[in-house]
Design a protein that fits this description.
The structure is a homodimer. The first copy, chain A, has seven helices and five strands; from the N terminus they run βαβαβαβααβαα. Chain A is α/β, with parallel strands linked by helices and about 230 residues long. In chain A, strands 3-2-1-4-5 form a five-stranded parallel β-sheet, sandwiched between helices. The radius of gyration of chain A is 17 Å and the shape is globular.
Chain lengths: ~230, ~230
C-alpha cells in the first residue's frame, strides 16, 4: 500500500477524509498540530479517530501560532455565538492566519521523508465560512508550489493534494462518512467546548454541524452541553 | 515606514538581506526558528544581527522538524566534510525537507497579522548547493500561492516575496553587505560549529563562505576553530 499523509484535526471533516484515503487504497500517516488552539479537546478526538481507523503512525507537532496572534481561535478574542449563515460577505474572526498553508507545508515535509506522493486535507469551499485557504484555487496553487519545492518532487515527481470534500455540502460529507463507517461520536467540531469536551451548540462550527446532521436525519452522536 | 517580514537565520545571507530591506525603506520584523537544527549557535547570531540592525521586533518560533527526520542538519547523520563544489548533480544531505516552504508559511502568517505586504528571504540559486527551495521557480510559485492563501491577500492585495540575493554570487553578496555596513563577524554559517560557536572551516557552508571572502579580498571576521 502506498503511504499518504492525512491532516487530522479531530473534527468531522478530517475524520471523513481519513476514511476516504483508506477507501482509496492508501496507508494513512496522520498529522495533527498543537498550535495554541483554545479547543485542545480536538487533539484527543484526533487520537481517537486515528486509533479507530487503524492508523499506524500519527504525529502531533507543536507549533506556536499564538506567537503572532490575530485569531479568535488562538487569542483571547471572544468566539462569536450568533452564527450569520451568509457570513456577511466577510471572513470571520475565527480565521487563523495562513493556517492551512502552514499545515500543508509540514505535511509536505512529512510526505518527503516518508516518500509519500499524496496528501489529504479536509478543506471545504461550500460551507467553510469563507476561509481563503479552503478554496480550490488555494489548493491548486499549493500543489503547483509543492511541485517545485522539494527534493522528492524535483527528483521523483509531484505531490498531489487531495481535497475530496471541496465541493461537498456538509450533509453529503456526513452521508459519505456514515457509508464508510466513520464514528462521528469520536469527532469534535466546537470552537468553544467545555472542559469535558462537550460542544457549546451555538458557535458557527456547531450550528453548521447540527444543521447538517438534521438534514441527514440522524442525531449527532457527539456530546453537547445543552444535550 | 512600511513593515516587512525578514527571515533571519543568523547566517551571512540573511544578515545581508536584512540590511537590504532596511536600505529599501522597510521597517523590518525579524523571524527566526528553533527547528531542531544542530547548529543552534545560529540563533544567538540571529539575535546579535537583529540587535545590530535596530530591528524593533524579532520573533523566534519553536518548530520541531526533527519529528520527521530526513536531514543531516536535524538528524544524527554526519555532516560531510569534503565539499564537492559541483554538488555531483545531487541534492546534498544537508537539505532539510520543505524547510523554506515551512519558513515562508510562518512568515506569511506573521505578515498577515502585522499587515505587512512584503517578505524577505535570503535564498540564493547560484551557490546554494542545489536546494530545490532556493530556486526562482520556487519563490515565484510560493508568491502565487500566497496571493490566494490569506484574508489579507484576498481583501487587500498580494504579498511580495523578495529574494534579493537570488542571482548574486556569494562574493557579490558580501560586497553588497559591506557597502551597507553589515558586521559579518556577528554571523554564523557553519553546519558543524564547536560549543563556543566557532566554525569548522571544512563543511560545505564554511568552504563556500571562506572562498567568497577570499575573492572579495577581506578576512572573514567570524571565529574559526582553525584560526
Amino acid at each position: 500500500m502506498k503511504p499518504a499523509i492525512v491532516l487530522l484535526s479531530g473534527g468531522l471533516d478530517s475524520a471523513t477524509v481519513l476514511a476516504i484515503a483508506v477507501a482509496e487504497g492508501f496507508e494513512p500517516l496522520a498529522l495533527s498540530f498543537r498550535y495554541g488552539q483554545r479547543h485542545v479537546v480536538e487533539l484527543e478526538a484526533a487520537r481517537n479517530v486515528a486509533a479507530a481507523a487503524g492508523v499506524c503512525e500519527h504525529k502531533i507537532l507543536d507549533i506556536d501560532l499564538r506567537a503572532f496572534g490575530g485569531s479568535a481561535l488562538t487569542d483571547e478574542i471572544e468566539v462569536p455565538k450568533d452564527h450569520d449563515p451568509t457570513g456577511g460577505g466577510k471572513i470571520p474572526i475565527t480565521y487563523v492566519p495562513a493556517r492551512n498553508t502552514i499545515f500543508l507545508a509540514f505535511a509536505l515535509a512529512y510526505a518527503e521523508v516518508r516518500d509519500a506522493r499524496d496528501i489529504y486535507i479536509g478543506v471545504n469551499a461550500l460551507d467553510y465560512s469563507g476561509y481563503p485557504d479552503c478554496r480550490p484555487e488555494f489548493v491548486a496553487a499549493f500543489e503547483n508550489m509543492a511541485a517545485v519545492a522539494t527534493k522528492s518532487a524535483v527528483e521523483g515527481g509531484p505531490v498531489k493534494i487531495h481535497a475530496p470534500l471541496m465541493s461537498l455540502t456538509r450533509e453529503r460529507i456526513i452521508r459519505r462518512g456514515l457509508e464508510l463507517g466513520v464514528d462521528y461520536g469520536l469527532t469534535r467540531s466546537c470552537y468553544d467546548p467545555d472542559d469535558a469536551g462537550r460542544a457549546c451548540g451555538h458557535c458557527d462550527s456547531c450550528q453548521l454541524r447540527l444543521d447538517a446532521f438534521a438534514k441527514v436525519g440522524v442525531t449527532d452522536p457527539a456530546p453537547y452541553i445543552t444535550a
